[in-house]
Amino acid sequence: MTVDITINGQLHQLDIEPDTPLLWVLRDELGMTGTKYGCGVAQCGACTVLVDGQATRSCVTPVEAVAGSQIMTIEAVTQDPVGQKVVEAWVSQQVAQCGYCQSGQVMAATALLKQTPKPSDEDITAAMINLCRCGTYNAIAAAVRQAAQA
């Protein structure tokens, strides 16, 4: 089956099974390896991308469910003004340690700030639920606050 999806502003026509998870389309079909596989059951958030501006777990999202949607991955996040501010704050706050969860964290923070430009601490806590093996939650929250003020 042919599925048309738009990723980072580019239309892709893929001959693929419609129930293929978006994560595997990104990584295996399109070579976009910035989005990570973590748990495969939508719990950790390493696979987070934006679908029409919403943080979405790509490991459990069938590609047919996002046909016609605008998908943004970590590869293009700095092309978005909010995403650029998030990345700059991430670097400034030296958030990354092992780095494995960072693409998903950056995408979740970008989605939050696009929906709530001046989030409260409670908003940040509620939105930033991706797992971090290194425990950098204080740095993550600080980076989100900094990006919101930029």
Automatic annotation (TrEMBL):
Q: Identify the residues that the record assigns to the 2Fe-2S ferredoxin-type domain, covering every copy.
A: 1-77
Which species does this protein come from? Ancylobacter pratisalsi
Among the Pfam families in the record, one is Fer2
InterPro entries with a match to the protein in the record: 2Fe-2S-bd, 2Fe-2S-bd_dom_sf, 2Fe-2S_ferredoxin-like_sf, 2Fe-2S_ferredoxin-type, 2Fe2S_fd_BS, Beta-grasp_dom_sf, Diverse_Oxidoreductases
Give the signal peptide range: none
Q: What is the name listed in the Swiss-Prot or TrEMBL entry for this protein?
A: (2Fe-2S)-binding protein
Against SUPFAM superfamilies, the record matches this protein to: 2Fe-2S ferredoxin-like, CO dehydrogenase ISP C-domain like
One GO molecular-function entry: 2 iron, 2 sulfur cluster binding
UniProt key word Cytoplasm: no
Question: Which keywords accompany this UniProt record?
Answer: 2Fe-2S, Iron, Iron-sulfur, Metal-binding, Oxidoreductase
